[in-house]
Write a structure and sequence with these properties.
- The structure is a single chain.
- By secondary structure, this protein is an alpha+beta fold.
- 31% of the residues lie in helices and 20% in strands.
- The protein is built from 26 helices and 30 strands.
- The strands form five sheets. It has an eleven-stranded mixed sheet with strand order 1-30-2-3-7-8-9-10-18-19-21.
- The radius of gyration is 27 Å and the shape is globular.
- 54% of the residues are buried.
């Protein structure tokens, strides 16, 4: 999905640096001393270890790929051990995640992080804590308490043996509380469209009252189509970048694009070689060191679940237990709205609400700042939510209404119920608790059933769309509760034998409710369905491995197909037209036409649209024009974009942009098309933010890898400048007939500790499209175990 870099992908940079690495100034191999220092800090993962806080011994078996299989005799010990083990592998990442969620980054980063800390504190849940804990699962509170005890115990036992990043920066990890796991920051970027609301308002204003709203309608598409309605009383001036400065600081880089990542699908036994369902899932997030995802296997009373979640949360988000498999992709429920509040010119802490001035709730906090005195800040709230920006000149405040203010909306934490579902009914019951992020959850069970549910907290808006900010004063634009799960789209055992989602518009024909209007393009979904409809096919795990890495491009088929409509081609361009027409439209990394196509596609959008859009509006609207819109305009040319002879004008644009693309491809890859390769341009980078000299780069950074695919292929590898910055860092293929035949990928490794054998061992497999087994049965786990750690309760000292 096209989203901000992960919250725990660290936007730390030079703010944490304390000088050169120990070996950077020496004459020996750069990084040798630093590598030894990093290795000396690695966690103990074999043998026996006395751990205070355990009730009974816990066995942790790590397999060849670094996945921890945790066996405990009590639930409390199980989650204590999950926290302990996660900290063994990811403590530095978890410390940054904790500080990000709690608004405590400025303490280690300095003044530049104050605004992001303020935003995090604004989003903190302030409601009924009993309702909050109960929302995820009845036993959420004891699970979180055990989990954070495990983290804190690891920290306490290893204060003198902290991972290398702590040593380089001089930072010490702080204790965790259950409230850390309830942070809203991880879920915020996945909940809706406040940023796009501001963008629509800006375009409507900059384009002028006559053309601005029409530009929004025409180019910022909605599904189903919903004309932009400017609410009565809303003036469009002042919708500028500062409104979202806090969100940008907290989540940088922020993009406005529609959701366009993640795939899942499931087939029934009638379409599989085993006669039982197969389920595939590859949720897409940022490519980072370490990965956002962390795989774990939890075995204890009432628990036997394996899969991937985030290291700072208990349970797993995507995986399977002994009866049920599940996976997810983000669904486009709009869970945010921005309210424009009228502020009293005589009192900036009062706003107009239903005809009278009303006091804002004001909280005053101090933000600790590295190297500076603490910064005092005011956190303000209206009836609609936190005030994210105050326009003092216009006497306005912008308040965010979002689902994160409701109990039970910490991202993914409802997995604690989902992980224990035993059948479809229990799956649905668990999804009644699923609120954030809104997800397409696919399902398969050992009885042969398959299903899909679009789950999430869906606000009810009556008479307004949620597409643009609304005035808050009169109370005309209020949420009317939330849709129950029973009213959200779902399917169970469909006649065609399969279900698939890829962030596309999943609304069934005639669906009676409004969930949102912004979806990812359907190209990946269309390609998945195309493959699943192969006549007579009985799918295997290997088939799904190939499909998850499929790089056939449906947009490339449509765009290159336009070349057949050309009346003539300039002689010097004919070889390149032939190159594209003979191409199989697969975005392979060794493909020459794929390289030319991608550069051509980059030039087509501005070539078609920019000449017809006001200059001051283009920087706002240009990046938001979807590939769907580009294809529509090219396939059905009109006078609006191409002049009085639309087809001739369209053909001229195709040729001129192709000529520019040939020139740029030649400049980048040389004059011989036979030597062009898409992979030469297209890479995934694995750069650690603390790698600022040769020694650190040698230890912390990982090799870049060539990539095939692009943002519109099932193997989604999108990013700016042909660099993959997000995609499937984790994949799973789950075989219900035999859980031990299930497989996965992840990148770069299970451990976030440089020097660990599992810091980057999964990167070669990921880059080559190879999988590792997700060992599940005790027999297979013990047979594949490479390390065994027994965590023992601390022995009581005899009384004197």
């Amino acid at each position: 999905m096209k989203r901000p870099a992960p919250l725990l992908g660290f936007v730390l940079g030079a703010a944490l640096l304390l000088g050169p690495s120990p070996s950077a100034t020496g004459k020996e191999n750069p990084g040798a001393a630093l590598a030894a220092q990093a290795k000396a800090a690695l966690a103990q993962t074999s043998g026996r270890l006395q751990v205070p806080g355990l009730q009974k011994p816990v066995t942790v078996l790590r397999d060849e790929w670094g996945i921890a299989h945790i066996y405990a005799e009590t639930q409390d010990d199980l989650f204590f051990a999950q926290g302990f083990v996660a900290a063994q592998d990811r403590l530095w990442q978890m410390e940054v995640w904790r500080r990000t969620g709690m608004g405590e980054l400025a303490e280690i980063l300095g003044p530049d992080a104050v605004e992001r800390d303020r935003f995090a504190r604004l989003l903190r849940y302030r409601g009924d804590m009993a309702a909050e804990y109960a929302a995820y699962a009845p036993d959420t509170k004891p699970i979180l308490e055990a989990f954070v005890r495990g983290i804190n115990t690891y920290i306490e036992l290893n204060k003198k043996r902290l991972p290398i990043e702590f040593q380089l920066t001089g930072i010490e990890p702080e204790p965790w509380t259950p409230e850390v796991c309830l942070s809203r920051m991880a879920g915020y970027p996945l909940t809706g469209n406040a940023a796009v609301e501001v963008l629509r308002a800006r375009i409507a204003h900059e384009g002028g009252p006559d053309k601005g709203p029409a530009l929004v309608d025409e180019l910022i598409e909605t599904e189903p189509h919903r004309p932009l309605e400017i609410p009565a009383g809303l003036t469009l001036d002042g919708f500028d970048a500062p409104i979202l400065a806090g969100a940008r600081a907290a989540l940088a880089p922020v993009t406005f694009g529609a959701r366009d990542g993640s795939n899942n699908w499931v087939v029934s036994g009638g379409l599989s070689a085993t006669g039982k369902p197969l389920l595939a899932n590859d949720p897409h997030r940022g490519v980072a060191v370490p990965s956002l995802r962390y795989l774990v296997h939890l075995v204890g009373p009432g628990w036997n679940v394996i899969g991937a979640g985030e290291p700072g949360l208990p349970g797993v988000a995507a995986g399977h237990n002994d009866r049920v498999a599940f996976g997810f992709t983000v669904v486009g429920i709009d869970q945010q709205d921005l309210y424009v509040e009228d502020v009293n010119p005589e009192n900036p802490n009062e706003y107009k609400w239903q005809g009278r001035w009303t006091a804002m709730k004001v909280e005053r906090e101090k933000i600790s700042v590295k190297g500076k005195d603490p910064v005092e800040t005011e956190l303000k709230f209206t009836v609609h939510g936190p005030v994210i920006y105050e326009d003092k000149e216009r006497h306005r405040a912008y308040a965010l209404r979002w689902v994160g203010s409701e109990p039970g909306t910490a991202g993914y934490l409802a997995s604690l119920s989902l992980n224990r579902a035993r059948n479809w009914d229990e799956f649905l019951k668990a999804l009644e608790r699923w609120t954030v992020p809104s997800e397409n959850l696919v399902y398969a069970d050992v009885d042969g059933n398959i299903g899909w549910v679009a789950a999430g907290k869906a606000p009810v808006r009556k008479g307004w769309s949620g597409l643009i900010p609304v005035p808050g004063a009169e109370g005309k634009y209020e949420w009317q509760g939330f849709l129950p799960l029973a009213d959200l789209p779902r399917s169970y055992n469909p006649a065609n034998g399969f279900l698939a989602t890829a962030n596309h518009n999943i609304l069934p024909p005639g669906y009676a409710h409004e969930l949102g209007y912004e979806w990812g393009t359907a190209f990946r979904f269309q390609r998945i369905v195309e493959a699943l409809r192969s006549p007579g096919k009985r799918f295997t795990v290997a088939d799904f491995e190939r499909l998850q890495h499929d790089e056939a491009s449906i947009p490339a088929r449509r765009i290159t197909g336009l070349l057949l409509q050309l009346k003539s081609v300039d002689a010097d361009l004919q070889p390149y037209v032939d190159l594209l027409m003979k191409w199989d439209r697969v975005m392979g990394k060794d493909s020459a036409p794929a390289a030319l196509y991608e550069i051509w596609l980059d030039k087509l959008r501005p070539a078609v649209f920019q000449p017809q859009i006001p200059e001051k509006v283009w920087p706002l609207v240009g990046p938001q024009i979807s590939l769907n819109k580009l294809l529509e305009v090219l396939q059905w040319p009109t006078e609006r974009w191409f002049g009085k002879d639309p087809k001739a004008g369209r053909d001229a644009v195709l040729m001129s942009s192709l000529r520019d693309a040939v020139a740029e491809t030649t400049k980048k890859l040389g004059p011989d098309p036979a030597r062009w390769r898409w992979g030469t341009l297209h890479h995934a980078l694995f750069r650690h933010p603390l790698a600022t000299d040769d020694a650190r780069k040698a230890v912390l950074d990982l090799p870049e890898v060539e990539r095939g695919g692009d943002g519109n292929t099932v193997n989604a590898t999108a990013g700016p400048g042909f660099t993959q910055v997000h995609g499937a860092t984790f994949r799973e293929i789950l075989d219900v007939a035999d859980w031990d035949r299930s497989v996965g990928t992840s990148v770069p490794g299970q451990s976030g500790q440089p020097g660990s054998p599992h810091y980057a061992d999964l990167l070669p497999l990921w880059s080559e499209g190879r999988y590792f087994p997700l060992l599940y049965s005790r027999e297979k786990v013990e047979g594949g175990a490479k390390q065994k750690l027994v965590l023992e309760p601390e022995r009581q000292q005899p009384a004197n």
